Amino acid sequence: MRKIDTLINQHSQHQHNMLGVLTQQLQSHQLLQQLWAAVCPEILSQLSTVGSLNNGQLTIFAHSAIVASKIKLSQANFLTQLQNLQQTKPAFRECKVTAISVKVQVKSHPKAIVQTPRKLSKQAAISLKKLAQDLGESALSEQLNSLANKI
Fold it and tell me: Would you put residue 108 in left (φ > 0), alpha (ψ -120 to 50) or beta?
């Protein structure tokens, strides 16, 4: 009976240690993702993810070849911004980035980019209402009035 208790205790301690290591890796990865999001434009941040940081080389996975080429073109600027952030923000001091490696990892279902709805100017709304009046009673004039009221 003691052997079984000893084995169970050893197993639970091992799982606890593994959970601690996994939690630490998760926090490190989140810190790297925050660092990347702070440096690159929002659209590039949405279309790429941080892979790892090994020997000062930050690996970025781009969702397409176009995004990868944009990151590669802006690489020198990103490195300068990363180094400035490392010096100014205490949370990022442990992330010593000296190079950026970009790899393409196509996602089957990338995140949908939320686009802000376009606003109709007052002059355009007035023009649409005038056109709807000129058309008389029809389905098109109703749709034009509906569109004009969405200022």
Answer: alpha
